[in-house]
Amino acid sequence: RFQMQTAVLFIVSRALRFLALYLQWAIIGRRIYLTEIAFGEVLASRVFRTARRCCALFYACALLYLCGRELWYQCVASSEDMLGDPDQIEQLVAASRGVWDIVVITLIWWVFRRLLAATDCSEARLGPYVEAEAAWARWVLRRLRLFMLVPALANILVRVTAGSVLCAIGEAADVANDVATASAQVFCEVVGFVCLLGMVGTFERGMHKPCDSAALRRCSYSTSQRSQGSGSGLMIDELQCELQTEDAMAKVRELAGRSIQVGALLAFHERLGAGGVMPHYDPWASTTNDVVRQAIIPLSRVPGGGVAYSTMGAAAEVAPVTLVTHAWSNLFVDLVAAVVADALGLKEYGDVADMLAAGEHASLERALQERGVANQACWICCFCVNQHANICGCFAHEPPRGSAAHARWSKTCRDTVTGDVFTCCDCDQSKVFNGNPECELDKFDTMMALLQNEVPGFRHLVAVDRGFEVFGRIWCVAEVAEAHRRSIPQHVQLCSCRELRNDTRNLELYERLTSISVANAEATRPEDKDAILSKIEDVQEFDAQLQVAIVGERGLLGQRFVGFGVWEVAANTARRVKALAKAHQQRHADAAVAPDAAGPPAASKAAAGASVAAVANDA
């Protein structure tokens, strides 16, 4: 009975060691396979899987032989009756384990060499945000490589050390031999178990990505000396000093006192369409610009001029808790849907836009009432700025005919649905523009600072249109960067978040967002762009902050990854950086080839023609 128990313990111990080893191999293989999928290229998962199966088959055969021999020896026969030398089998298994460790080290090193090379964007200047993502991915991939390599390296090191010790003490010291062998096995198993926990993400819980780019930690507004953070904005006297006049500060306070409630915004949208205001309104075609010109401006006209739409019928001023940034080229239904979805706590506004287009305003109103946010006050420029004091009676400066700018300008002068040119308002309201203390178009940044100081819980909402054009408008870019610089809580409403997932295969949008520059942003009035650019000392650092503010919340640097998924995110990042670097190099190559393909310049052609004529005359 005692001999049977000894045999069973021997078999169980060997089987558990084999299962633990095979589990470690399986996890390493799975990690390589998932990394291969995320990276989008074939690495070494098939080679590793084939080698693992061959090694496992050999180990299983050796285990069956050793277990069968031990069982026969303990229960049936004496040692003289046994065939084969078990020590030789043990040595063969140990040798095969060493060979397998070398194979593992070679494959892992080759795989991660390709991954780390993909995150190297030193040759292609992809911008500080992408470079920060690449730096984080390299850091994560190096950790994963360490967890995979250490067990194999430890096994080789321990076996070499144990072999040296055994040779030194001699074969006669059986006790020392057994102790050294057992200690080596225990050490290898402990190291393997710890690294196994690392590979499954046990040590990565709640891990944030580091941002080691100095450009992402600084903002170089000319007003960078201002204090930041909630409750630490500019003091009122500092704001007034910045505006230089009391009249300008009074206008800022007037603007900050205007707002439109979410329920009122929903009711306004319900009035649009057949039988109401702007009968030809089409939710899937009419833009905010269309609604401003043909609904908001006519409705806000009063005898002798006009007022901001939000002040009409308002019993008292209500300070807004949310400032909404949006593009006038956006569908108006999407603007309303973004504000309503944000009030309802939704992350996307696509479904709300569908409900608005279907006329389900009553259902949305009930949802707002149940949540208690129907009276939530928002600041939206098209409602809270008096359009009669600036744009109602004219259009922006006409760009040169035939240019792309002229085509865009012409589009803003016409209704999207009918194609007719807008009818300008002929009210008697005096018009004031940038630089005038009474102007309402150039004080958004100061108004944001005032609201941050005086309104608890003040926040910034970016209503992103389906084409992401909001990030190409100079005023929108300025508001996003200003809120980010002042640490005003920012929220982004997208029609759908699918395009910003880290595993998306469509990199066009990601490339656009991570290469946005304030210098390339557009403005209806050129003087607006000049005024904003004059406040920026270093455009490159400003762009870095802008990219973090735009992509950071749903992009890589703003997310928290837990456990196993962090490795796939790092591999996705490597794939993305590699694709962007390749596209960047291709564009530079095309730009270098383009002048050559266009032929010699006109002056060169003229000189060549003159030379030919001279030769002809000589002949």
From TrEMBL:
Q: Which UniProt keywords apply?
A: Membrane, Transmembrane, Transmembrane helix
Q: Which residues cross the membrane?
A: 6-28
Q: Tell me the protein's name.
A: Uncharacterized protein
What species was this sequence derived from? Zooxanthella nutricula
